[in-house]
Structure formats: structure tokens, C-alpha cells
Amino acid sequence: xxxxxxxxxxxxxxxxxxELLSAGHRVLGMTRSEAGARALAExxxxxxxxxxEDVDSLRRGAAKADGVIHTAFDHDFSDFVANxxxxxxxxxxxxxxxxxxxxxxxxxxxxxxxxxxxxxxxTEEVFNAEYPNPRVASELAxxxxxxxxxxxxxxxxxQVHDTVKQGLVTYLIDLARAKDVSxxxxxxxxxxAAGPVLDVARLYRLAVEKADAGVRYHAVAExxxxxxxxxxxxxxxxxxxxTTLSPEEAAGxxxxxxxxxxxxxxxxxxxxxARLGWHPTGPGLLADLERMDYSRASS
Length: 299
Description:
Layout: E1 2-6, H1 13-22, E2 26-31, H2 34-43, E3 46-49, H3 55-64, E4 67-70, H4 80-96, E5 104-110, H5 136-147, E6 151-157, E7 159-161, H6 168-179, E8 182-185, E9 191-196, H7 197-210, E10 216-218, E11 222-226, H8 227-238, E12 242-245, H9 247-254, H10 258-261, H11 270-276, H12 285-291
Parallel strand pairs: 1-2, 1-4, 2-3, 4-5, 5-6, 6-10, 7-9, 8-12
Antiparallel strand pairs: 9-11
């Protein structure tokens, strides 16, 4: 298949490109820069200039393809709600180019939206429209397209990691470096699900190949890693103290990260693994955090 991949030069997208190519697919990779286009060409993909704000470019890219994987997202969390709405418009644009066909569209969301109750691992069959993460807008957009006959499926992400980036944990590291303290909320027993980036890339490939409409997959290798354990490894890596904060103190300390810092974002992938025959083999989140270079600030 020719796969239109948004976010093709991003953290996850750049891992999906070789995964698709090695499986015999062709990749039309979206990038917003000439440098990104060169990198994609060198990787063996066909570059496509476009961006999330230019919805016409999204439609054109999707119209050329046999399937679409959408991983692009504006990660400026200081304007998170607006960026989630931007993603909703992008998904609508991609879907509009696929109407009247069975060509698959795989979109991206977060595992927390599959949580039915606090402290309970999220599962694939649950869609919690009341979950506090504004990223719920992405799944609402997918549901609207599904009702219009578009072949939409969802990959829900946990903390996706290697030894350079680790999802929201990367921002916790930056914050601990800036404030000279690594913090967690309360007893730090809340857990965050995690998945190695190469395993996550393979899941996207399997999802677009399966092309099952209306299903949700969890890219989860570890059901939950305790927030306190994450904070303690960060503290050791940066050689800063580790402390607990009350929920009231957390808002002032974490800023926008306060929306997530005390949440339990554990998740199961039992159904996903059975459905796709996907069995993650990469290192755990704590292992990657142990091996990373803390002398280098994240880019």
C-alpha cells in the first residue's frame, strides 16, 4: 500500500517510516520543512509538504494514498485545548478524502480516554467522553467520520519512550532540571502506562494493514509504572532531591503538567495483543530512563 503518514519526521512517525518500508509498503510522508523532506527522501519515503493548519494539504495527501496513518500533533501544551481542536479539524479533513472507500484511516489518541473509573486500567472497549484530557476531541472526530462510513481506527498512546524521549516524562525531566527537584503527587502510587517506540511503530503498521473500522488499539507494553518510581529515577539521573507534593501544591509546581501529574493513566493491551498478534519486546520505561543521558537537555 501507499501510506500517507502525517508527522513522518516526528518521534513516532520517524520510527513508523522504516517499519512500513520494511514490510513492503510505500510511504508518502508529510513534513512542513525542506530539511524534513530531505530526511524523508534519504529514508526511502516520498516527501509531501504540508501541515496541520493547511487542511487542503491533508486532503490532497490522503487522496493520493491507499491508507492514512495520522500521528502529527502540535505538542505546545501551553495551548493544549486549542491544539486538540486543531487535531479534530485535521482528522475531519483526512477523512473527507477517504469517504466512499474502504481505505483505512488510523488516528491517534491517548490511553486515558479508555478509563471508566479512577485507578482502573483503561481498556479498548471503553470510550470515556468525560475524561479530563482534551485529546478526547480526536476520538470524537473519528467517531463522526465512522458514522459517515469512513474506515477509522484509533491507536491510543501511553508514554512512548526510548533513551531520548519518553512522552510526558520528558517534560517532567525538563521541569526537574529547571527547578532542581523531582516531584510526584501524594504517595506517587498513580501509574502511567508505557510502550517502547519501536513496538508502537509496529502496532501502527499492523493497524493500517488490518483496516478494521471502529476499533481502538492500545500501544501498551507496561500496564502501569508508578509516578514515584519515575520521579526517583529522574532524581538520580539529574542528582536532584525527590519530593512529594500535595494536590494543592502540584498545580503551582507542575504548571500545565498538573493536569496529568496526579492522574492514574494505567492501561491494558490484552485485547490489542490478541487482535493483532502484537507482542511488545522492547525495554521498559524505567530501563530506558536509567540508560538515558541526563547531561543533555531535551530538544
